[in-house]
Amino acid sequence: MTQYPSKSELRKQILKQRLSLTQETWREKSDRICQSLQSFPLFLEAKTILAYFSFRKEPDLCPLFTSNHRWGFSRCVGKSLVWHTWSPGEPLQTGNFGIQEPLPTATPLNAGDIDLILVPAVACDYQGYRLGYGGGFYDRLLNSPEWSHIPTIGIIFELARLPQLPVDSWDRKLQATCTERNIFIH
Asked: Domain 7-185 belongs to what topology?
């Protein structure tokens, strides 16, 4: 019987690989991801998109933020993500996990405002399951009834796209995964 690594072991392995990317390779792969998204119909048709600010060499989506979309970014409040609008040039603050986030005074967003969620991940598998950082923030969000119908695209580098991940009952499939190679529909 094949023994697969645990989520925590996989997380360590993939984060180590991702952090070992040179700055040039990271930028090049991030730019390719942004180019793919800019021609993807789900992205083009969306008016309001939730995204993230790159942390620990996650794919950097900053080139997208000047496009004609309304952007939302999260703040970690307790065990939940609270979403606010943000535009380039507006102030940010460093949150509890060292991640940039909008100020608490920024305009709030709720599920009814959102057309697409670009989901950060440590890894995604071929079926559309995601491995996060272990805090459960996106699991709780994607499992709540008001958010569960919104299209989701996992954003990862190809090195983090795996045939299969360990799956728990609370894990939800993403509609697509975007890497520097392609956008994969699930």
From this structure: Rossmann fold (3.40.50)
**What pLDDT sits at residue 135?**
87
SS3 38: helix
Which helix (H) or strand (E) covers residue 168, if one does?
none
Decide the pairing of beta strands 130-131 and 123-125. antiparallel
What is the pTM for the complete model shown? 0.95
What is the per-residue burial (b if ≥16 Cβ within 10 Å, else e) of 149-159? ebbbbbbbbee
Q: What is the pLDDT of residues 25-40, one digit of tens each?
A: 999 999 999 999 999 9
Which H helix or E strand runs over 101?
strand 100-102
Q: Is the pLDDT of residue 161 over 90?
A: yes
- 86: tokens are 């943000």
